[in-house]
Design a protein that fits this description.
By secondary structure, this protein is an all-beta fold. It contains no helices and 8 strands. It has a single domain, classed as Immunoglobulin-like.
């Protein structure tokens, strides 16, 4: 699994792209989980296309029924909407695992 995120410092929408490794021998994912820790006072309002939770700075999300299957080399885009007092979203420990 590979994750990449677009950076915007205006406290708005942030797309995250999750990509499955393009290996033919690897079966398609049937579910996934993404998690990270914010580095400051960031607060999510919505994490579109996921079932998500935030507890203090820790965030985790799993697929919804229609986007759990990811073929090798395929991708899922996740859009986060939130706020931060200084307008910056710091993320550490960004991981993605099959569910």
């Amino acid at each position: 699994m590979k994750l990449s995120r677009a950076r915007r410092d205006d406290g708005g929408i942030r797309p995250v792209l999750m990509t499955s490794a393009p290996t033919r021998a690897r079966p398609p994912l049937t579910g996934w989980r993404i998690s990270w820790t914010f580095t400051g006072d960031e607060k999510l309002f919505s994490l579109l296309t996921t079932k998500w939770t935030q507890s203090a700075q820790s965030v985790s999300a799993t697929n919804v029924s229609w986007n759990g299957a990811v073929t090798p080399g395929g991708a899922v885009t996740i859009t986060a909407v939130g706020s931060s007092a200084n307008g910056v979203f710091g993320v550490t420990g960004l991981t993605c695992t099959p569910a």
